[in-house]
Amino acid sequence: MKKLLLVFVLLFLCVSINAQQELVGKAGDIIQLPQECSSCSYVQISSIQYPNMTREYLNQTMTNNGSSFYYNFNKTSQLGVYNYCGYGDVNGIDTVFCYDFKITYLGKELTTDKAIIYFMFLILLVLIFVGTFIFIGFLPSKNERDEEGKILSISYLKYFRNVLYMFEWMLFISILYLFSNIGFAFLEEQLFSNTIFTLFKICLGLSPVIVVVWFIWIIVSMFHDRQFQQMLNRGVFPMGNL
Question: For the whole prediction, is pTM greater than 0.90?
Answer without folding.
Answer: no
